[in-house]
Amino acid sequence: xxxxxxxxxxxxxxxxxxxxxxxxxxxxxxxxxxxxxxxxxxxxxxxxxxxxxxxxxxxxxxxxxxxxxxxxxxxxxxxxxxxxxxxxxxxxxxxxxxxxxxxxxxxxxxxxxxxxxxxxxxxxxxxxxxxxxxxxxxxxxxxxxxxxxxxxxxxxxxxxxxxxxxxxxxxxxxxxxxxxxxxxxxxxxxxxxxxxxxxxxxxxxxxxxxxxxxxxxxxxxxxxxxxxxxxxxxxxxxxxxxxxxxxxxxxxxxxxxxxxxxxxxxxxxxxxxxxxxxxxxxxxxxxxxxxxxxxxxxxxxxxxxxxxxxxxxxxxxxxxxxxxxxxxxxxxxxxxxxxxxxxxxxxxxxxxxxxxxxxxxxxxxxxxxxxxxxxxxxxxxxxxxxxxxxxxxxxxxxxxxxxxxxxxxxxxxxxxxxxxxxxxxxxxxxxxxx
Length: 434
Ligand code: AMP
Ligand code: GLY
Hints:
The protein is of the alpha+beta class. Helices cover about 30% and strands about 25% of the residues. The protein is globular, with a radius of gyration of 21 Å. The termini are far apart. The structure holds adenosine monophosphate and glycine (GLY).
C-alpha cells in the first residue's frame, strides 16, 4: 500500500504516525512533509498548491491513496483534479469544501437541514450589518464568511465593538475578499468540543471527541491562536450527547450536502458548543483539526480494520468496513510548543533540542526544518506538538506537560494547563465519590 500525504504540519505527522503504527509495511510519501514526518515517509519537495506535480507523482508511483491535510488545496479543488485523473484521494471536492470555505453557505445549509446552530444574518452592507447586530444584541459574534486562517471571527462584548469589527471587515477590508460577506451571529455559551467523522458522503465513522485550547496563555487568557493544545476523550460528552450529535448534526449535514449534489467525502470536522439547549454548531471544517488530530489519533485506534482502510473506503465510495472495534487507550493530552512572537508573528531559525522521548509520549513536528548542518530549527508558529497518553487523565496531562518543559528552543511558548476543564471535572467526581 502506497500513501501520499499532502501537507507538512503536526496533523500530517500524526496521520503518518497512525498509519505506520497500524501497518508498518505501508509506504508513505509526504509533500512537502517535515523533519518529523521524514522519519516515517519519503518527503518530496512539492508544494501543496502544485497540483500538476502531485498528480504526476501519484500516477508515476501508483499511489493507492492521497490524503489531504490542510484546507487550502481542498478549497482550490485538489480533489476535483485527482478524481478527474481517476486517482483515489481522501478529502472533499471544492463544492463540498464550501462547508468550511463559506460560512454563509454552511449557515444556509444548516438552516435548511434544521441543524442546531446560532442564529445569524449574512450581510455585505455596513448599515444592514449594524442593524443586524442591534437586532440580535450584545454579546455578539462577527465573522468573515471566507477563509481567514482562523482569524476571521471577532467575539464582541458590546455593540460598539461590533461596529468596529464590522468596519474592519466591510470598510477597511482587513480580511480581503474573505470579509466582503460577513455573518452577524448570536453568541452561544458553553463548552466547545471538536468531533471528527470520516465519511463517503453517505455513511460516516466518528472518532472520539476532543477539546482544543485556542487562547495563547494558561487560564484561557491572551490572544486566539490556531490551537495551543488538545485532549481526548472529553468526559462531558455522554452517550446521550454523542447520540444527539450523530442524529441532529452529522447525519442531516452529510445528507443535506448529498442532496445538493455535493456529497462530502473525507473528514467532516464539527466544532460544537455544548449549550444548555444541547449541542450546536460553531463551525464546520473540511479536514482534520490541528492540534486535535495529534491527540485523537494517538488514543483512538480502530484496529480492525485500520484507520487507513476506513479512509480508503470513504475515498473510493465503498461500504464502511465492518466490523469496527475501537481500542481506546485511556487519555491523550497534546501540548503545543510555539515559537517566539506567536501568534502575531513567528521567529524562525531557533535551534531545537529534544531529549530522548519516553514510550508513552510522541513528539509531532509542526513547524520545524533541518538546517544544512543537520540542526533542527523552528520554522513556523506552532513548532512541535507533544502528546502524552495514559490510562488516567491527570497522568496523560503530566506526561505531556513534563516533556514539553524539557524540549528546548529560544522563545518557546506553551501552556501548562491543557485539559484544565477535564481535570476539574475529574477532581470534582473523585471528591464526590470519596
Ligand atoms: P470559528 O473560527 O468559527 O471556530 O470561531 C473561532 C472561535 O470563536 C470559536 O472557537 C469560538 O470560541 C468562538 N465563536 C465562534 N462563534 C461563536 C458563537 N456563535 N458564540 C460563541 N463563541 C463563538
Ligand atoms: N484546531 C482548530 C482547527 O483545526 O481549525
